Amino acid sequence: MLHRHSAHNEAVARIGWCVAERRIGVITGEVGAGKTVAVRAALAALDRSRHTVIYLPDPTVGVRGIHHRIVASLGGNPDPSRDPGPQAADALAAEQAERGRTPVVVVEEAHLLGHDQLEALRLLTNHDLDASTPFACLLVGQPTLRRRMKLGVLAALDQRIGLRYTMAPMSNTETDSYLRHHLKLAAATTRCSPTTRSRSFIRPAGLSACGQQPRAASPRRRIRL
């Protein structure tokens, strides 16, 4: 069962707004902060009869790879002899205009995207003389993504971003709740009140000193607290 905390709930709500408004969203956070969990929770709440999720887990496929994945995910056949960019743009527009479904493009590890890939995603939003965008796009990555958006070469993309959200680490109170939650799931038989000592025990396992990053600690370590 999912443990919800304030940063997670805030991220889910903001992602939902971003999708509803068909905007570009940038969700960043340290490794293990819960970015992917929040995105999946937000997507799970969508009406699948009105949304089509296009998941891009590998940003190293290049511009053509991104375009091909979009076309294929929308039921098309990418033409290897042509530039797939216009085909991808047409497929996104048709999904929204003809089928009444909003495409939601989710790019994981987006901090690894090259400038050409980020620019290609921006160009896909150019539709109907910029009066509207036929899809929502979620760029999910580490904090370097947020900093890269400030580069002059990406100014045009930066101006189109409708959501910027950085997932903060859990507070000590939220960490205590997280530990109790997983101990309960593990059917722990002894009472356990997480303390400063137990929290300091978890952090050497790879957690940030400024707060908890849940997935870095193994279930076995949590049970032994």
Automatic annotation (TrEMBL):
Residues spanning the membrane: none
GO MF annotation: an example: ATP hydrolysis activity
Domain named AAA+ ATPase: residues: 21-166
InterPro entries per UniProt: AAA+_ATPase (IPR003593), AAA_22 (IPR049945), ExeA_AAA_ATPase_DNA-bind (IPR052026), P-loop_NTPase (IPR027417)
Name under which the protein is recorded: AAA ATPase domain protein
Organism (species): Mycobacterium xenopi 4042
